[in-house]
Amino acid sequence: GLARAVEASGGRLFSDTRAVEWTGAGKPQVKTANGQTIKAKSIVLATNYPIMSKMFAKLPAYRTYAVGARVPKDSVEKCLIWDTADPYVYVRTQPEDGFDVLIVGGEDHRTGQADDGAERFARLREWTQKRFPQASEWLYEWSGQYLETHDGLAF
Asked: Counting CB atoms within 10 angstroms of each CB, which of 11, 27, 71, 84 has the fewest?
């Protein structure tokens, strides 16, 4: 939908195109790895990492874990909660047909500094069972990586 909106407004999108240099003020343009130059009225740099500053070297990567359990429909109030423990735990629900999925995550650590995912998933399941006994069936478990900013604000 976003791509269609950009194109409907006269914008152009370039996929699989590596930008190696860009300028903004006055005459925005992007030079690509294959030697092409893309000229524009404006440029949007949409990245997950602040590539225009040296700050990137100071952003630690963390691994977070999550489990999803089946719970009866509306047995857990719709919410997004997290505690202040270390490691912290966060909770939310996702509606499905005929039931809800209780998503419990946390057990974060610096990426590359632990190799004990099975134990972290087990602790999340144990934490969940103590607080949400209606969690009847474990449907999912996954982990992901995120970058932690020093001021706690998102990019």
From this structure: 84
